Amino acid sequence: MSSQYASEICTLLVEDNFGELFGRIFSTLLRYNRLPLPRLKHYSGLSERQLHYGLAAMIQHRLVFHYTAYDDGITYYEANIQFSYYLVRSGKILEFIKERLGDYAAAVMSTIMLLGHAQIGYLEDLPELNAHHPISNGVTEEGDVDGEYGSIKEAEDPEGQEGEEGQVNGVNGDYAPSGPSGLLHPTLKTLAAHGYITRVREAHFQSYSDNVLDAERAVKSRPEVKQLKGKKLEEAVLEKTIDLIRERTDGDLTHGLVFNGVPRGAKRSHGTEADGPNKKSRLNYDSVDGDEDIEENEWSDDEMVGDVVPMQLSKSGLVVQVNYEKLDVALRNRRFLELAEKDASPVTSHIYECLLRRIEYQTRCCRDTAEIPREGEEGEQYSAPISLTAVVEEVDPKLDVAGSIAPKDISQPFNRRGKRPLEDGVNGDHHEGPNGVASEGNRIFDIDQHLSLLAQPPYNLTSKRTIGGLTTWTVEFRYLARKLRHLELERMVEARYGDVAFRVIRILHAKGKLDEKRLQEISLLPFKDLRQVLALMQAGGFVDLQEVPRDAQRQPSRTIYLWYYDPDRIRAGMLEDIYKTMSRCLQRLRFERSRMKDFLEKTERSDVKGNEMRYLSEAELKTLQQWKAREALLLGEVSRLDDMVAVMRDY
Amino acid sequence: MSRFGAKRGRKLPGQEFTWDNEPGAEPDTAPTPLFPKYAIPHARTLNPQEQVQVDFYRDLRERFHEGPDYSVLNTASTAARKGEAARANFDPFHGMQSYSGKYQKKQKTLPTLQGRRFILKFFPRELWRVIQPNYKAEAPVDGYLGQMKGAGLKRGFEDDELEEEEPFKRRRGGDDEEEAEGEEGGEKDILEEEEEEQEEEIVDDDFEDDEDEMGGDYNAEQYFDAGDDEYGDDGFADGGGGGGDEDTF
Amino acid sequence: MTSSESGGSTAQLASKLYDECLAKFPPDHLFYQQDLLGLGVVPKNDLGLLLQCTQWLVDQKLFRLLQGKNDRLSWKLISREDAEKLQSLSPDESLVYNVIHSTGRSGIWVRAIQNRTNVHKSILDRCLKSLEGKNYIKSVHNVKYPSRKMYMLAGLAPSEDVTGGAWFTDGVLDANFINTIATYIEYTVSRKSWFEVPSSDGPRNKRIKTSSGAAVKQDAEKEYLAFPPGYKGYPTVSMITAAVNESGLTPVRLGEDSIAQLCDVLCYDNKLVAINGGEFYKSTKNPEAVKQEQMRKESNQEPADTSRELVKNGMTEAPCGQCPVFKLCTPGGAVSPESCEYFGPWLEKALGF
């Protein structure tokens, strides 16, 4: 399942974040796929104790799957390549959360990541999340981390009790608005409502194939299934297995937290547009606290009903984890938005962002299939339709939506601030507000116009649907995901081989297989240039030549040569190259670090850290700063490469 | 001509397909340099958004490093593979302890499990005793066992097996500790030993505490404590080699 | 005598017939028997007489005998000058000339002439040489079969199939010409694709920012707005063609087909976008951006940072992305991330230290 380079980068990531012990266990599991403890011990050369501790901690971080066979009771361990890979995306996710939901939410998320999965009750006890002043910038002071684990021991019993009491108070709406735990719960709920965190289920700790086996076994033993035979049996098993897996792995927490398609605690996108003073208090605590009573109850009610395991532990026993699937949806929307920003006006992009946000709320994952389907074999898949009025609601009311589209008729005098006369009179009864803002009807029409603009080629970022007389807007996910992929590949071609190659690739992509002559006619390129660029691209693996002999002798002179471009194949190869490049960057980073080892160890000494100004000379400070910049560039590069992986693999 | 021929004879396979067929490039007949010149691309500087992302990554990574799970492999540990010259790697200049060593970042060789709350049902049974030292099969621990049973029932089709498995697996957990000392334990040994060791399992209950008090066979602490009498007997072999020159971060 | 008399009268009658045809029909008309009789020149619609006349005209090379629909006989006029030319030809030459004539603007391959005339190769060569010498025919270059020797009448312009369209000069793609026209088209289309905000409105303060926080349009001297969806003012192919032909950039008039072809190429270049399936064209960049890009290309400068970013992604900017020894690179190998000689300069280039 996992290729050489995917394994390499995942092992590196595990090592980079958790050290060599995890790395050794992880790479051994990757190499041998699935091992029981004794074999693992044998292959890894680690002691039993190292394995016990290591595996336990790795399971906590969901880096390792485990599965206990029913027949022999032997527990097998397997590397979780997906989750280990997601380590690389942590920075991106946290930055996204910060942008969307503020610093504190990012801090909470970061802590959940730190813990692998976390019980709500446990989070309640963490001093870092309950500090009076939310940690700025989502970055924890070093001291806090130590304190955190130190305090856990004490917190274990009596404190936990108190935490629950705090909860009870919360239910009654007795939160002190700025009190320590006042922030945590609303934030967690907001994260849950957005789907950014989900409940951890036992099935999550088994690999997908093990879950399939389990579910199949369970389904087959059901009395009503046992009666079936032949084809019917197969079908029933298949269908019910899928259902059962879905049921077992479903960690959805959004239920009851989404109102009118908007998650609880979501801030309007124009919240982010606000400047200066508002920016700091993005999290609108007032409103959150305002409806605390009702929602708190819903949260807990839902808890009791929805959970399969009876909750004897009070609701704080709920265990949550980061929902990478959903975050991929959000990050993918960001890419779509970037496409829009390239060509469209800022106003149009903003409106697109509003639409995408509404869509994100209703999209669970990027696609239904595990693998990206082959080109041309992929069906259309539209997002949930969002009614125009919902988009309008989302758009910043202060935004001038009229002045950023040109008049239909150039001869008309053009005025700013929405005073443009609507010559086609879509809304006959339009009248302007006192301060020159167009009326509601015009506003809806204008926003619709912006969305229509986005629907145009080349990107077709939106599409309009009228459902029962109601105008709605959707996004064709698969088409756009493909578009992103093609753009990345085209970008590679253009950067490597120039704009001639870019043209050729796009022609081959649009027209299919072509012989040289036809290709020249369409591309209007001189033969010399054309041949040269084709040969280069063939060497680079971007185009291929198919030979179609016209007779059985297969003489070269009687053979037609067709050039073609196969994005699927290139994508697969490219993905490997990207993994490899990521690995090289991380390895280089490690090497660079080892070159400065002594110096860096000095800066990390417990007495120096945090007191750099006092202990380090000016030259040293400069070296440190340069090192940080170098590290940042290499990590940033890895993160950019990850953007490509996301496009080629996840979206 | 003959020169060409001679060269061709020595040409590495695949060399004709290398990068040098760029337009205008001269044909490469010289031995390939290890790192041929090429126009190294220019990386964009990180934009503010990317900078934030990188900082978040670094921050989280640092929290992992400071956290309970980050652990390195100790070359001096029993796990060092034979043939891997761990001791030969000892750095006589930096391996020595120095006063400032006490400020040096300490590196663990095992994750710290103690004092953390684990949710038993998410872990395989053979590890329960590791993460919950006072775990006893019979008594429900913090209600988790009850849950586990509930979860087991939910599966429906395998309760019987489950009940049978329990003692069996616990036994295995006990054995594992024995194995820790004797290096090359295989599956068969465990199965054989199981019979004999059945009675011993109660003793194993405080296996965790023992380990923690002894500090195991790794020497992070030892290393720093030993800072005063750095010329102690095994200062080189054990303390120095382990703490100092592992190439990790 | 009677024969000569009748011959004389036939000649007179035929001349009259020829003049009438010339006067009453377009030169390219295909005459059937009825058309000729309808002129009322031949008395009593005497078919025999008509036949004699047409035969005489054909002999005089004033008429060309053709086979019309349903195998009926039909004729076409030949101008007197051409007839004179033809009369001076030897029978072989005449034969060859007619074959070449019949293929019109597509021209004909020498071997095909030989097949159709059954004239011996050496004679054919002599005929072709003499015809070419008299400037009656010319050899043409066919883009599709560059190695074939082809001929067509000297007075005809080769069809686009032969030349490959307006973009070929002597069968070779004229890249410079194409680029000139393409540049012109992009700019022209661009000017009609964006609405330039009248400067009286003044540069708008940029209170709208993208999510990344960066203002999209910095101090916009000129501000361009997109036209609303369904806008009909985008240029069509015929508008573009007209503009190109008036621009003085092209020595020959370019047809709409050629321009459409070039517009398609510009679409592949991602410079234009076809709207409504090619009814209109719209440029992806606004005029200002087009101008800058084109100026940059002309001066062959390093691309500006912004435009360079468009072709950048993680792979293209990583030192490994185009590394010549990428395939060989393994940790611990001779080529390895540790020994890599590219990372150092790469970091230095980006960071400046």
TrEMBL record, chain A:
Disordered: annotated span: 133-182, 262-288, 410-439
GO terms for biological process, alphabetical: DNA-templated transcription
Compartments (UniProt record): Nucleus
Domain DNA-directed RNA polymerase III subunit RPC3 winged-helix: residue ranges: 489-564
Basic and acidic residues bias spans: 420-433
Keyword annotations from UniProtKB, A to Z: DNA-directed RNA polymerase, Nucleus, Transcription
Keyword check for Transmembrane helix: no
Biased composition annotated in UniProt, kind: Acidic residues: 156-165
Function text: DNA-dependent RNA polymerase catalyzes the transcription of DNA into RNA using the four ribonucleoside triphosphates as substrates. Specific core component of RNA polymerase III which synthesizes small RNAs, such as 5S rRNA and tRNAs.
Quaternary structure and partners: Component of the RNA polymerase III (Pol III) complex consisting of 17 subunits.
PANTHER family (alphabetical): DNA-DIRECTED RNA POLYMERASE III SUBUNIT RPC3 (PTHR12949:SF0), RNA POLYMERASE III DNA DIRECTED -RELATED (PTHR12949)
Protein name: DNA-directed RNA polymerase III subunit RPC3
Organism from which the protein derives: Aspergillus sclerotialis
Automatic annotation (TrEMBL), chain B:
Transmembrane listed as a keyword: no
Primary localization: nucleus
Domain of life of the native organism: Eukaryota
Gene Ontology cellular-component annotations: RNA polymerase III complex
Basic residues: compositionally biased ranges: 1-11
Keywords, in A-Z order: Nucleus
GO biological process, one term: transcription by RNA polymerase III
Cellular compartment(s): Nucleus
Entry keyword DNA damage: no
Comp. bias (Acidic residues): 175-215, 226-236
Region ranges (Disordered): 1-36, 155-249
Assembly, per entry: Component of the RNA polymerase III (Pol III) complex.
Family designation: Belongs to the eukaryotic RPC7 RNA polymerase subunit family.
Function of the molecule: DNA-dependent RNA polymerase catalyzes the transcription of DNA into RNA using the four ribonucleoside triphosphates as substrates. Specific peripheric component of RNA polymerase III which synthesizes small RNAs, such as 5S rRNA and tRNAs.
Protein name per Swiss-Prot or TrEMBL: DNA-directed RNA polymerase III subunit
Species annotation: Aspergillus sclerotialis
Automatic annotation (TrEMBL), chain C:
GO biological process per UniProt: transcription by RNA polymerase III
Keywords: DNA-directed RNA polymerase, Nucleus, Transcription
Location of the region described as Disordered in the Swiss-Prot/TrEMBL record: 286-307
Lineage: superkingdom: Eukaryota
Keyword Transcription: yes
Localization in the cell: Nucleus
Compositionally skewed regions (Basic and acidic residues) per UniProt: 288-307
Cellular component, GO annotation: RNA polymerase III complex
Main location (coarse class): nucleus
Family statement: Belongs to the eukaryotic RPC34/RPC39 RNA polymerase subunit family.
Function comment: DNA-dependent RNA polymerase catalyzes the transcription of DNA into RNA using the four ribonucleoside triphosphates as substrates. Specific peripheric component of RNA polymerase III which synthesizes small RNAs, such as 5S rRNA and tRNAs.
UniProt name for this protein: DNA-directed RNA polymerase III subunit RPC6
